[in-house]
Each structure stands twice: as C-alpha cells, then as structure tokens.
Amino acid sequence: MDSSFVSLGAVNAQMWDALVSMSDEGWPFALSAWQRLILAVEEWGLIDRSFIMMQDGRIVAVMPLQFKPASKVLASSGWGGTGPVVADTLSAKWRTRVLSRVLEHAEQIGLELGATCLEFWMSPVTRASIGARWGVNPFVFHGFEDRSGISQVIDLSKPDQALWRDVSETARHAIRRAKDAGITVEEGAWPEMVDEYYSVHVETYTRTGVAPHPKAYFEGIARAMWPLRHSILWVARDHHGQAVAFQNTLWFREGAYYHTACSTQTALDSGANYLLFWHALLAAKVAGIRWYDCGEIAPGEITGKRLGLTIFKSKFGGEPHRFFKCAKTLITMKSECVNNVSGFGHHLSSWLRRR
Q1: HSE of 274 in the Cβ direction (CA atoms, 13 Å)?
Q2: Does residue 97 contact residue 110 with C-beta atoms inside 8 Å?
Q3: How many other CB atoms sit within 10 Å of the CB of residue 57?
Q4: Average pLDDT over residues 274-288
Q5: pLDDT digits (tens, 9 = 90+) for 45-91
Q6: pLDDT the model gives residue 340
Q7: What pairing do the DSSP bridges indicate for beta strands 117-122 and 73-76?
Q8: What does the DSSP 8-state code read for residue 315?
Q9: What is the pLDDT of residues 262-274, one digit of tens each?
Q10: How far apart are CA 117 and CA 126, in angstroms?
Q11: How distant, in Å, are the alpha carbons of 93, 162, 281, 341, 354 from that of 350?
C-alpha cells in the first residue's frame, strides 16, 4: 500500500470535510472548521497535529488531533469528542488496515511530543456507533483501553404522541407551566446573540461552581459552525421578550447532540429549560434527524452537577447507549530513561545493603 501522511495545514479543507461527511464515523467535531475553531481559543493552548492519510493519490482517512502540553495528552480532538474517520469506499479488510496505520502514526506523533496518553471518542449517534452490534468498543482490537461512558439517546422516528408519552410527568408539568407563564422558544442567530449567550453562560457556570468557557469558543461556533447548520441555537424568552435560556444543539446527518446550554434562575423557576429541550427535540425531528443524543449521563452519581444533569437528561425518554471512548498509555523515550535509571538505582542500593 503506497501511503503517506499530510498535516491539516497542507490539506484542502473541502477534501477533508467531504470524507468526514460521507464516512460512518463522521461527526462535526471531526470537520476541518472545528479544528481551526478550537485552535483559535488561545486560553486552551492546543497544538495541532491533525493529519490525513493518502493512498495512491486519494484521501482514505482523516485524524483530528491536538496536543495539550499542560496535561501531556494527545487527543482527538483537543476539545469535542471525535476520532479517526476512515473512508467508507474501502473494503472492510482495507478499512482495518488503514485504521491501524492511522493509529500507529498518531501514536508515533505522541511519542515524539512526549505525550503520556493518546485518547479519542466516537459519538453514540454516528452511523458507526448506532450500527455497533452488542456495544463492543471497536478500538480495543487496536490495543486501546475501553473507557466508554453512557449517553441517553432518543429515537425520533416515533410519532410525536409517543415521544410525549415517554417524557416524565414532572417534565411534562414543567413544560405546561412554562407555556402558561408565556415562555416562547425560537431559533436564534448565533452571530447576533454571542454576547447575550455568553452573559447567561457565565451566570450559569458561576451559579453551578464551574469555570466558564472562553468567549472565543462561542465566537468560533457562531463564525464557523452556525453557517453550516451544524450548531443550532434555540432561545427561550419570557413574556417580556427577554432571553432567559439557551440551548445549542449539534446537527449532523441523522444525529443531533445536546451540546451546550445555559439559563437564568428565572428560567429554572418557570420551567423554560424543559420547554426549550422539548422544542429542540421536535425541531430536530422535523429536520429529518433520527437520533437525539441528550448527552452523557452518570447513573452512579449521588451529588453535584453531574447528578442534576443526569436526572434532567433522563426525563425526556430514550435509552442508554454506549458512548465509545478509548485511551492508550504512551511510554516515551524520556520516561523509559527515567524508569531505567530508577531501576538501576534500586538495584545498586540493594547491592550496597547486601555488601
């Protein structure tokens, strides 16, 4: 196989994105625009090592990849879970070979950078994840450790009445309460609402004790993902027309994802968050989307923000799906030298004690 690797900076973005859009592993976090978006967030300090694999003059795989010097983690991607994306035009046998080569190259990059870990993910609503029989993580066959989580996924192919029956009684009550309070939901234009969104984002994260994301992150979403209809912004307004809650939903082919959200205390009291979520579900269905990923849940949590989110996400029906995650510990030459020196010192000390 005559193959080569080319960095993202030297690749035609349309060729990169065409493969992502066609592959069963494709997801917006794998798009070239997403890589450039997260690299522009200076606070994160990501170093790009994304690449494509060429075979006989054509692209057969892309690998979004960023290094985080602070944690020494090489991840796909540095922000937003994705992983290697291989062309569906290849036979099953060649896909396996290409994937192995891509992972080997990524591991070599990690060793050269001094990374201690290589990790990546696969959205539970990609075609590849939905079609994974028995929920077996496919990357364990390439030497990676399975660190999968659980996501709550809703099948939107059901009639609206069936979807409504799956919603918990407390959530349905909150939706009715929000409507009675005059709460309305509409689609917002990201570029026009970044400042307003970020103000509520900071309020939400401060209230829940979590550090807010950099504003540049949301500015990038508005600039790069909203025009492509991959990030859809929903806005809940009170009876005065004031925005009290936002939901940023990711759309890609048959899958949608509850990406980011924020709200004022007023929204929590009125039930606006529930009406907002229900509206986002129905809008995704109308757009032809089949699977709605409510996001990762943590059934074992007993306190804190993750418990609250788990309860909220589980109130709209759906079923738990595997959220494939994997990692591989990298032993760099530097760490090998340290281990060797430490081992020599241990043996020398033992010998001196015996003497």
Answers
A1: 25
A2: no
A3: 7
A4: 97
A5: 999 999 999 998 899 999 999 999 999 999 999 999 999 999 999 99
A6: 39
A7: parallel
A8: G
A9: 999 999 999 999 9
A10: 24
A11: 52, 71, 66, 14, 6
Q: Map tokens 């090592």 to a residue.
A: 49
Dmax (CA) for the chain in angstroms is 86
Q: Name which of 349, 290, 332 is nearest 116 in CA terms.
A: 332
Does the pLDDT at position 155 exceed 60? yes
The pLDDT assigned to 332 comes to 59
Q: Are 249 and 286 in contact (CB under 8 A)?
A: no
Position 282, amino acid: L
- The helix or strand, by DSSP H or E, that contains position 113, with its residue range, turns out to be helix 92-113
Closest residue by Cα to residue 167 from 270, 314, 294 = 314
Domains with residue ranges and CATH for the chain = 3-116+330-343 (3.40.630.30), 153-322 (3.40.630.30)
10 Å Cβ neighbour count for 271?
Answer: 22
CA 347 from centre of chain: 46
Alpha-carbon distance of 99 to 55, in angstroms, equals: 12
Q: Output 237-240 pairs: Cβ under 8 A, ≥24 positions apart.
A: 237/183, 237/184, 237/185, 237/186, 238/181, 238/182, 238/183, 238/266, 238/270, 238/272, 239/181, 239/182, 239/183
Q: What is the DSSP string of 88-108?
A: TTS-HHHHHHHHHHHHHHHHH
